[in-house]
Amino acid sequence: MPRAGLNRAQVVARAAALADDIGLERLTLASVAKDLGVRLPSLYNHIEGLEALHRELSMLALRELAGRLGAAAVGRAGKDALDATADAYRAYALRFPGRYTATVKAPAPDDDDHNDAAKAVLHVVMSVLHGYGLAGDQAIHAVRELRASLHGWADLEKTGAFGMPQDVDVSYQRLIDHLHVSLTQYAAEPVTR
Q1: What's the whole-model pTM score?
Q2: Which of 33, 68, 138, 181 allows an S-S link to 40, with CB 3.0 to 4.6 Å?
């Protein structure tokens, strides 16, 4: 029996929680319907299919991530802003692994709503980089370096890949310290390639 009052936002919210529990790659419309206590066909009244659900999850997660990064960056600059936003990024990825995974794929170029959600994250990161004096191509290269580093770390950490006894937080802070040095060097060097 369909649950009375169910709407698209509730479906997406429950799918997000379920993705965090079981992993985005294991999320199916059938698992969402079961979790909501509705029959699969009635779920199509709220979501067009699995691809549409993944898009909705991505937009939800990007907005959440932008909010957390923005809150972390407010009133900070340079290394302080980098530390705070990197910590917020790491915390989000570890606390919400399914949602975080939904943020990784780039939106379709013609999907304005999805692109706006992604740009909200980019805006915060660009603000942090502005504190290093980076703009234009230098900032884009720096964004890619930051994203690859932070995503790689988060992906490894959330899957339990750091099994050696040394303190993971010390290793993580060393990574951020190296990124700070790299960003400082970017500001002093012209982009040649």
Answers
A1: 0.91
A2: 33
Q: 163-179 in b/e burial notation, b at 16+ Cβ within 10 A?
A: eeeeeeeeebeeebeeb
What is the fold, at CATH topology level, of the domain defined by 1-47?
Arc Repressor Mutant, subunit A (1.10.10)
Domain boundaries, the chain: 1-47, 59-188
Specify whether the CB–CB gap between 63 and 120 falls below 8 A: yes
For residues 27 and 50, give the distance between their C-alpha atoms in angstroms, rounded to a whole number: 9
- 1-47 and 59-188: same fold? no
Q: What architecture is domain 59-188?
A: Orthogonal Bundle (1.10)
Confidence of residue 4 (pLDDT cuts 50, 70, 90): low
What are phi and psi for residue 45, nearest 5 degrees?
Answer: -75, -15
118-124: Cβ within 8 A, 24+ apart: 118/62, 120/62, 120/63, 120/66, 120/70, 121/62, 121/65, 121/66, 121/69, 123/66, 124/66, 124/69, 124/70, 124/73, 124/85
Q: Kindly state the average pLDDT of the residues 101-123.
A: 95
